[in-house]
Amino acid sequence: xxxxxxxxxxxxxxxxxxxxxxxxxxxxxxxxxxxxxxxxxxxxxxxxxxxxxxxxxxxxxxxxxxxxxxxxxxxxxxxxxxxxxxxxxxxxxxxxxxxxxxxxxxxxxxxxxxxxxxxxxxxxxxxxxxxxxxxxxxxxxxxxxxxxxxxxxxxxxxxxxxxxxxxxxxxxxxxxxxxxxxxxxxxxxxxxxxxxxxxxxxxxxxxxxxxxxxxxxxxxxxxxxxxxxxxxxxxxxxxxxxxxxxxxxxxxxxxx
Length: 256
Known about the structure:
The protein has 256 residues and is an alpha+beta fold. Helix content is 34%, strand content 31%.
């Protein structure tokens, strides 16, 4: 596998037809990462973030990726670092499971397509009980879920998130009770991550804060992205109400 230069990232963006949001974050150079290819023709591609999230794309029959994937996994094991591998095809699933047999935990997830027409004609909430605030550094310090460690893992740093990402929250008595942030973002996409304090669930806060996130996307010509585990019925139900349709299953593999 050869490392693709950043000058070739625009070509890669046109070449790939479908990928996780973090792939576009790498290609738009919003987060640190690398892209590897089997040849200059980009038949087989491996993307990975600095934090240890990977995605394989293209022709799974190319053997050049075998060594590189095994090497990345071994490095993660030896250094006790994260290894999360995304696969969007059954052919890649077979390849991955053969290559790293019995060393991985397999999880199935859905990625959805956003339908703006459904969103615009949804049943809207009434007046919000809490003020919506944009995420700032002081709010990050008080977050229950999306703290500094979170942004260092997914955005390389809090400062990079504040520069290139975005998010919104509800605050009650100086406590964040619901929050929606971009776990990943590119020039075209923004993937949502939501948290609501367990003491405030059942009030529609997750739906309302998600609306603030989606509205921001639409104003800024971004496509909102919604992914979740296939067993997360609550997330599926909420996403469907907000216009996320046509679930497509994909697989992630982590260290067992």
